[in-house]
Structures are given as structure tokens and as C-alpha cells.
Design brief:
147 residues; alpha+beta; two-stranded antiparallel ribbon; 6 strands; 16% helix; globular
Length: 147
């Protein structure tokens, strides 16, 4: 059994951090309606490099963006707002990682990008966005790319 298939509560710190696929979906603005339905948009946090889907200041992100949640084994109950394919959410629910997850490909993100789950190049920054978030609701995966 691979370490990432073990119960999530048994992971050490390095394994916990490595579980993240780096898709960037958790860095996208979300909307919650009056019926508690959660919707994702393609408008990214101001710290996200939208071309690479990497946080520009990961170590200090919670100081710069107060509502940025740092998931830990102690606050997994907050996983409900994470993308349905988030490795933390999937593993907390006892499900296996998706076939496209980089850990299943030696760390290579190509399968994730091809499956349409990586936000690089498919989102815009809230720094430059003008308009209503309701007009930017999307469902992942977006159409599969050729990367």
C-alpha cells in the first residue's frame, strides 16, 4: 500500500504536505447561495500566479489573505468547501486519489492538466477582475487541454 492510500490521520507532516496535488482550485473565489450550495468561479486569489497555479507567498498567505484556510489534520471538518477532487477531501472521505493525481505519476502534473483539473492558464486574478463573480461560475474539470 502506498503511503497516500493510508488513512489520512496516519500521515506525517511531509506526507500531509505532499498530498496536495497543486491544482490551485482551492485558491479560486467561491460563492455560497442561500441554500448553502457552493459554487466555484474562475477568479483566483490575488496571491495566485494564474499562469503557474502557484501561490506567490505560500508561507505567509494566511497573514496576507485572512480567509485563506490552512488545512491541517486538526481542522479537516473544513474540507467541505474544498474542491470535490481535493486530495485532502477525497482521503478524508476514505476514497482513493484520482487516477490523474500527480502522486500516481511520480509527481508529474501532466495527467492532471490533461484531465482539466489544473487552473494554470484557466483563471483570472481578482486583482484585475471587474464584474460580478456570479458571471464567472465554472464547473471543473474544464474542457481537457492538450498539455
Amino acid at each position: 500500500m502506498a503511503w497516500y492510500d493510508k488513512p489520512i490521520e496516519s500521515l506525517n507532516h511531509e506526507q500531509w504536505e505532499a498530498l496536495c496535488d497543486g491544482c490551485g482550485q482551492c485558491c479560486l473565489n467561491q460563492l455560497l447561495d442561500e441554500d448553502d450550495n457552493l459554487y466555484q468561479t474562475d477568479v483566483a486569489c490575488s496571491l495566485l500566479d494564474t499562469d503557474k497555479a502557484l501561490c506567490r507567498d505560500y508561507a505567509n498567505r494566511t497573514q496576507q489573505v485572512p480567509d485563506c484556510v490552512r488545512l491541517t489534520p486538526d481542522n479537516l471538518e473544513q474540507v467541505y468547501f474544498m474542491p470535490k477532487t481535493c486530495a485532502y477531501r477525497v482521503r478524508a472521505q476514505g476514497q482513493p486519489l484520482p487516477d490523474w493525481h500527480p502522486l500516481r505519476h511520480g509527481g508529474d502534473k501532466s495527467a492532471m492538466k490533461k484531465a482539466g483539473y489544473h487552473v494554470a492558464g484557466q483563471c483570472i486574478s481578482e486583482k484585475t477582475f471587474r464584474g460580478e463573480l456570479e458571471e464567472r461560475i465554472v464547473t471543473w474539470p474544464l474542457s481537457s487541454s492538450t498539455e
